[in-house]
Amino acid sequence: MGPDADDRGRRGHHRTRSRRAEALRARYGRGRFLGHGGEPRRAQAYDGELGAAVARAQEGDEAAFAVAYRLVHPALLAYVRGLVGDDAEDVMSDAWLEIARDLGRFKGEGAGFRGWTATIARHRALDHLRRQRVRPRPSALEQDVLELPGPQSTHDQAMEALSTEHALALVGELPRDQAEAVLLRVVVGLDGPAAARVLGKRPGAVRTAAYRGLKRLAERLSAESVTEEAPRTLGEST
């Protein structure tokens, strides 16, 4: 099969995935990023709601599956966008097909479901990049994540400021290991061991990468605050 046929095949596959992504949004909605991590009781309530929805979905309750989708999809989409850029929604449509297909095999609670789905999403993103023969993007976040959890580390400024478009752009300047660690820990809300399982690394290495990434962000934001009268937030003109 020649190059032209390959291109036509890729375009057809892309259109199919785009239609699938649109169908998912129409059926289940875009979801909302609830945030968790800074307030233990809020995190417990979030994971409790998610775990209950997953359990019902495993029994065939489609409305419960829609709840689970809305709870985890925004953060997963943001993470995948950091890897593949504009193709994130298409990649996530593939990921959700796999999640739905293998849902019965999942064993765990809400926090475990977040880690399980993040692993699937990452694998699909890397598969996509291999097909495209390109390297993963360090990060390409835009406005998928506008509200993030409160800080659990000492880098309060960096974690709080991740709710701004400017700070999200700074994540893209981090080394890839630090960017992924920050996104999984702060955006997806995984703890060290769960993020390590997603990345196939040791928990200590992921914690160190996240710490260094947040430290870099804090230093950048602190330096900029000295030269600017006020930080720019989403919606303000430049």
Automatic annotation (TrEMBL):
Residues 1-21 are annotated as: Disordered. Residues 168-217 form the RNA polymerase sigma factor 70 region 4 type domain. One of its GO terms (molecular function) is DNA binding. InterPro entries: RNA_pol_sigma-70-like (IPR039425), RNA_pol_sigma-70_dom (IPR014284), RNA_pol_sigma70_r2 (IPR007627), RNA_pol_sigma70_r4_t2 (IPR013249), RNA_pol_sigma_r2 (IPR013325), RNA_pol_sigma_r3/r4-like (IPR013324), WH-like_DNA-bd_sf (IPR036388). SUPFAM superfamilies: Sigma2 domain of RNA polymerase sigma factors, Sigma3 and sigma4 domains of RNA polymerase sigma factors. Keywords: Sigma factor, Transcription, Transcription regulation. Pfam families: Sigma70_r2, Sigma70_r4_2. GO terms for biological process: DNA-templated transcription initiation. It comes from the Bacteria. Residues 69-133 form the RNA polymerase sigma-70 region domain. Belongs to the sigma-70 factor family. ECF subfamily. This is ECF sigma factor. It comes from Streptomyces viridosporus (strain ATCC 14672 / DSM 40746 / JCM 4963 / KCTC 9882 / NRRL B-12104 / FH 1290).
